[in-house]
Amino acid sequence: MKEVSQLVLARKPKQCNFIEHRDTKVVYRKYASLYFVAGIGLDDNELLTLEIIHRYVEVLDRFFGNVCELDLIFQFQKAYYILDEMIMAGELQEASKKTVLRVIAQQDETEAVENSERGWGDLK
Which residues, other chains included, contact 9 with Cβ-Cβ below 8 Å and sequence gap of 6+? Predict the structure, then answer.
């Protein structure tokens, strides 16, 4: 992880977003101050992976309202929920932003109902 981070951070903005590292291709994309990095197999499609990263960031933006580092730090479980709704077993399962956001909203409602039934109030 440390090696990959150093490799990605050392790259210039005009360089491509793919790096071959050992037996893996590293695909990354920078959005403002956030880096999103994915490791894929040597035979996997880099452009598709870039598109999946972009779609993920778009959904995060809609959910958090312009996602930032603090959103991901303090609500990392929501970011994982979103990722889990989009990707299963390393493959894109749901490409529709509306569908993913609807399912996340349903999860939030269910969680709020369960918390109120337990007397925990509005925990997020």
Answer: 35
